Automatic annotation (TrEMBL):
InterPro entries for this protein: IMPase, Inositol_monoP_metal-BS, Inositol_monophosphatase-like, Inositol_monophosphatase_CS
Keywords on record: Hydrolase, Magnesium, Metal-binding
Cofactor: Mg(2+)
Gene3D superfamilies on file: 3.40.190.80, Fructose-1,6-Bisphosphatase, subunit A, domain 1 (3.30.540.10)
Protein name: Inositol-1-monophosphatase
Reaction equation(s) it catalyzes: a myo-inositol phosphate + H2O = myo-inositol + phosphate
Keyword Magnesium part of the UniProt annotation: yes
EC number assigned by the record: 3.1.3.25
Family statement drawn from the similarity comment of this UniProt entry: Belongs to the inositol monophosphatase superfamily.
Entries under PROSITE patterns matching the protein: IMP_1, IMP_2
Length: 277
């Protein structure tokens, strides 16, 4: 019996992408204003996740509630995947992937490098990404096939330098054993690059690759909401993104870099075991 070929998934048209972008930008702006202006002076930890130092604040929860409420009001049939528990399948083919505060520990301590990250997928393909960093006064966005932008201005990743002249960002998990393994990788990597930076928000780090403020960034242990918007923004800015060789960015390894740096750094991280604890 011959199987009937299945049609390819329908792609998002320009009108849908424009609608999703407008909604994502507005939701991120509203959440960013809430987080920046509504941060209590005595902000404390509301819960923990993977370890006692991997925290959730009351403002993470308030931000996610604001974002999902706003998006549901305008597109009630869409699905959600959110860090603080928002999860629903939806029926429209659109799913929103939300990190209401990326860089929660920075936010808890009053440091500026935290962000709101919102991505929209259509039938499993990421088509829109928005990352707002309110204290930095910056918002990045990208639409699949249309480039990446910072505050409305096009951005591109840096030309690829030799690895020993590359500034590389990274991050660390919150479980002691993983942090020890990640530190061992950094120890091997530091002599081979210009320097290492650790910002504390994966979404901002990916956008910093897009904007040319980093030559590359890698991290193990990210979740879909950590990387969804930033990965699209970096790719639309001309960066290469992925995970282990032949795989997309995922929880084992997320890597974004200017293409020449990516081609050298990916196999190096594989050899150094950056993808396991």
């Amino acid at each position: 019996m011959t199987e009937t070929p299945q049609p390819a998934p329908e792609a998002a048209d320009d009108a849908l992408k424009a609608e999703l972008l407008a909604l994502a930008r507005e939701a991120a702006a509203r959440a960013g204003t809430l987080l920046r202006d509504g941060r209590p002076a005595d902000l404390g930890v509301a819960a923990t996740k993977t370890s006692p130092i991997d925290v959730v604040t009351e403002m993470d929860l308030a931000s996610e509630k604001l974002i999902t409420g706003y998006l549901s009001e305008h597109r009630p049939q869409d699905g959600f995947l959110g860090e603080e528990g928002a999860s629903s399948a939806g029926t429209s083919g659109v799913r929103w992937v939300i990190d209401p505060v990326d860089g929660t520990v920075n936010y808890l301590y009053g440091r500026p490098d935290w962000s709101v990250s919102i991505a929209a997928e259509y039938r499993g393909e990421r088509v829109v990404g928005v990352v707002a960093a309110p204290v930095r006064g910056e918002t990045w966005h990208a639409v699949l096939g249309e480039g990446a932008f910072l505050d409305g201005r096009p951005v591109r990743c840096r030309p690829s330098p030799p690895l020993d002249q590359a500034l590389i960002g990274t991050g660390f998990g919150y479980i002691a054993e993983r942090r020890a393994a990640q530190a061992a990788v950094v120890r091997e990597l530091v002599p081979q690059v210009r320097d290492i930076r650790r910002g504390g928000s994966a979404a901002i780090d990916l956008c910093d690759v897009a904007t040319g403020r980093l030559d590359g960034y890698y991290e193990r242990g990210l979740n879909p909401w950590d990387l969804a918007a930033g990965d699209l923004i970096a790719r639309e800015a001309g960066a290469s993104t992925g995970g282990r060789p032949g795989r997309p960015a995922d929880g084992d390894l997320t890597l974004a870099a200017s293409p020449g740096v990516f081609d050298i750094l990916q196999p190096l991280l594989e050899r150094l075991g950056a993808w396991h604890d």
